[in-house]
Specification:
With about 180 residues, the chain is an alpha/beta fold. It has 2 domains: about 1-110, Ribosome hibernation promotion factor-like (Double Stranded RNA Binding Domain, 2-Layer Sandwich), CATH 3.30.160.100; about 130-170, Sigma 54 modulation/S30EA ribosomal protein, C-terminal domain (SHC Adaptor Protein, 2-Layer Sandwich), CATH 3.30.505.50. It is built from 4 helices and 8 strands; from the N terminus they run E-H-E-E-E-H-H-E-H-E-E-E. The strands form 2 sheets. A 4-stranded mixed sheet has the order 1-2-3-4, with helices on one face. The protein has a 4-stranded mixed sheet with strand order 5-6-7-8.
Length: about 180
């Protein structure tokens, strides 16, 4: 696995790079050698943020952790990615036809499969056309973390959501 390390608004020291390489290399056993892991590190006030993104075969594994210690953030985000791999490995194997993951790694590293949460409730609602500002207002009025709506400009179903940093994100479909 190739590990690409970048600092957003900060210089990444050699020792920090070595630490990231050592910790993220722990994930080598799950991927082929040509897989890339993108690690972005940043500092916002007292928050030490580490984001790891591993794109492969149309699937993206992503984890982000923010603590007051950069090294703790690194440890926690690597653990988070590893848990994602184990939790979703059956679905990922089926989707990727067992071509992205190194199968021998799973035979050596067997963990109890975590049961995926079950769908216990289904909601149906009319998706009326509205602009992004109106959708944001509706989300706030409902007190939800996200809101699904039909974008009046594009006539596509979109999702707005509250981000951890307090801003709003917009998800627009891209039919590839």
């Amino acid at each position: 696995m190739r590990i690409i390390i970048t600092g957003k608004g900060m210089d990444v020291s050699e020792y920090l790079k070595e630490t990231v390489n050592k910790k993220v290399s722990k994930l080598n056993r799950y991927f082929w050698k040509d897989t890339e892991a993108h690690v972005t590190m940043s500092v916002e006030k007292e928050r030490q943020i580490v984001e790891v993104t591993i794109p492969f075969d149309g699937v993206v594994l992503r984890g982000e952790e923010a603590t007051t210690d950069m090294y703790a953030s690194i440890d926690r985000v690597v653990d988070k990615i590893e848990k994602q791999i184990h939790k979703h490995r059956t679905a990922l194997r089926k989707r990727l036809h067992e071509s992205a993951f190194d199968q021998d790694a799973y035979e050596q590293y067997e963990l109890e499969e975590e049961a995926l949460p079950k769908v216990v409730r289904t909601k149906r609602f009319v998706v009326k056309p509205m602009d992004v500002n109106e959708a944001q207002m509706q989300m706030e009025l409902l007190g939800h973390q996200f809101f699904v709506f039909r974008n009046a400009m594009t006539n596509e179903v979109n999702v707005i959501y509250k981000r951890k940093d307090g801003d709003i994100g917009l998800i627009e479909p891209d039919y590839a």
